[in-house]
Amino acid sequence: GRTLGLIISTVVLFAILALRSQSFLSGYTMFVISRQMAFYALIALSQAFCLVVGQMSLAVGAIGSIATVVLGVGLDTWGLPAGLAVVLALGAGVLAGWLNGLIITRLRIDSFIVTLSMMFIFMGLRSGISGGSPYKVPESFSVIGQKSLWGVPYVFILTVLLLGFIGFMYRSTVFGRRMLATGGNAAAARLSGIHTDRMVVSAHILSGAFAALAAVLWASKLGSAAPETGDDWLIVSFAVAIIGGTGLSGGVVSALGIFMGSSIFMLIKHGLVEVK
Known about the structure:
Blueprint: H1 2-20, H2 27-52, H3 60-77, H4 82-107, H5 111-130, E1 135-136, H6 143-146, E2 148-149, E3 152-153, H7 154-172, H8 174-184, H9 186-191, H10 196-222, E4 224-225, H11 233-243, H12 255-275
Antiparallel strand pairs: 1-4, 2-3
């Protein structure tokens, strides 16, 4: 029911914008909007993984920025092949998420406090390593972020495939159902034999991996690895995930909802710019 409401809202917004602006339905505008939507969906997913298990991560943007710096150092300073630099950047995201999850589960500190503290640590590391200046990335690295297949951005295609996989994971896999159960009622999940701490750590690892993936794709879009990547992700991550029907108290998530949430968020943003 909720997802249907989101679909109707998206269609209505789309129709209003199409009627108000001649340029809205142009290939270029559609390309820009769908690519930005994909980024919003990835950023929201990195928050949704934590929300599903009844946690939150205030560090999604900071993990994105540290992954960008690792990518930049790999490509620009060390001259590594693009594939290896991407693996290192994603590894940094996974490591950061794992650290968050580990501190939360081992020391029993609230995720709000842990991820807020880690956010400042990652931001400090990012500024210390990069000095605030962007890194160059090779021309070939920009293909995924800037090019399209039949007018559909590669980033958008990749995000839709990932959303499909995540939807399948939560609907049909033991791992996904256990994550939902942990968020729905942690005590009941623990009594039914689910290792809830492991689920929480896994959620933070996935969150870190997706924040890093969004950062890598963002660097590909920009054509440079800018350390300030991720500074404005926090509001987006919560807004899109929650518009998309992810439960703030855990146990509820919809991949299609997140896709629709990112559409609505992007269309409203685009509409406000058009009206100006």
